[in-house]
Amino acid sequence: MFIRPKSLSSESKRELFSQGATRSTLKNNMRNFHSLSQLVLSAGPLKSTPAVKHAKTSHFEIEILDAQTRKQICIVDKVTQTSTIHDVKQKFHKEYPKWYPSRVGLQLERGGPFLKDYVTIQSVAASSIVTLYFTDLGQQVSWTTVFLAEYTGPLLIYLLFYLRIPYIYDMKESSRRMRHSVVHLACFCHCIHYIRYLLETLFVHRVSAGHTPLKNLIKGCAFYWGFTSWIAYYINHPRYTPPSFGNRQVMVSAINFLVTLTNWEENDISSSPSLSLMKTQEKKWLNNMQQPQK
After folding, report:
1. 104-107 vs 59-66, strand pairing mode
2. pLDDT attached to residue 280
3. Averaged over 171-188, what is the pLDDT?
4. Cβ–Cβ < 8 Å for 187, 251
5. Phi, psi at residue 279, to the nearest 5°?
């Protein structure tokens, strides 16, 4: 049985048809590519998408709440980035004149530390609206005022006892008894001592803490003025007797005074040993002020 071979004419027709279809497809693709390239060229160069710039906040709004009740007191607007806590206190003082800047305590959170006056708003701001908590620190006085009052009082009080005014000593007894030379020397040293303190307060010391509660002024003056009155009363008393060891004791004490007198140092006024107790009490007072009442 023989298989009939396919005719060559039919196979050639199929090849010619497939070749024609392939050519037509290539022509169509070329036309499409040409039209697409013409479209791209007519559109011009591609423009890059501009980057989105995040605008920085140029002004802040300060919302001030009461630290005890959390009620809103006021809103301080149009606060610049370079503004400090002191600037916010100044604007707050304009709204409420009874609370001057040194009396205002501002906190980022209840029970937190009070913000220093030199702190900038930008450094504590997490958004354009900043919430601060207000605490009334009470009546305040500057540290310079405290020290001037503490040192001026002993200077004047001692002179009143030195002059032996009649309201303190008996006039007849004062007139009969002559003063010992060491009494004059003690008055001179006492005056020089406190005059030096006054000059240091005005021209040498740096006051680190701006203000302190008024009660610290009362405590300091009570200590300095009371202690001066106590020693001045006995040293300037008409019945005062000279030291037991005589001139030798007086000379040693005078030399020791001169050595301490020449020790002029420029230091921070808050590091004075005589104020350690006052500083400790002030820290306790501030901690009590920072604790919210339930």
Report:
1. unpaired
2. 53
3. 87
4. no
5. -65, -40
**Percent of the chain's residues with pLDDT above 90:** 44
| Ranges 133-147, 161-175, 254-268, most confident | 133-147
Cα three-residue angle 82-86-92, rounded to 5 degrees: 110
Give the CA count within 13 Å in the CB-facing half-sphere of 267.
Answer: 9
Cα torsion 141, 146, 149, 155 to 10°: value is: 180
Residue of 134, 139, 123 whose CA lies nearest to 74: 134
Distance CA 45, CA 153 (A): 87
Look up residue 269 and give its DSSP letter. Answer: G
Distance of alpha carbon 266 from alpha carbon 252, whole angstroms: 27
Average of per-residue pLDDT across 140-146: 91
For residues 256 and 262, what is the distance between their CA atoms, to the nearest angstrom? 10
End-to-end CA gap in the chain: 115
Per DSSP bridges, beta strands 59-66 and 129-136 are parallel
Long-range Cβ contacts of 76-81 (<8 Å, 24+ apart): 79/121, 80/121, 81/57, 81/120, 81/121, 81/122
The DSSP element (H or E) to which 151 belongs, if any, is helix 143-162
The reported pLDDT for the residue numbered 131 is 94
Q: Write the pLDDT tens digit of every residue in 80-118.
A: 988 999 999 999 999 999 999 999 999 999 989 999 999
Residue 99: CB atoms within 10 Å: 17
